[in-house]
């Protein structure tokens, strides 16, 4: 079993993701979040997620995009 993991965050609470990562002795993985004029969101991961467990810190309560 692979125990490598990474933490990603959305735009809602990056401070919470950073605190979680600090407690786990790691860093939040790099990504770029862009918003288009029509409201769509594009996310580009800057680190490879291949063969890793990925945890996304982002609330799912309304309003959700």
In short:
It contains one helix and four strands. By secondary structure, it is an alpha+beta fold.
Structure write-up:
By secondary structure, this protein is α+β, with helices and mostly antiparallel strands. It has one domain (about 5-55). The chain has one helix spanning about 15-25, and strands at about 5-10, 30-35, 40-45, 55. A hairpin with a 5-residue loop joins strand 2 (about 30-35) and strand 3. The model has no long low-confidence stretch (mean pLDDT about 90).
Measured on Cα atoms, how large is the radius of gyration? 13 Å
Total beta-strand segments = 4
Low-confidence regions: none
Proportion in helices: 10-25%
Keywords:
65 residues, alpha+beta, two-stranded parallel sheet, two-stranded antiparallel sheet, 1 helix, globular
Sequence-ordered SSE layout with sheet pairings:
Layout: E1 5-9, H1 14-23, E2 31-35, E3 41-45, E4 53-57
Parallel strand pairs: 1-4
Antiparallel strand pairs: 2-3
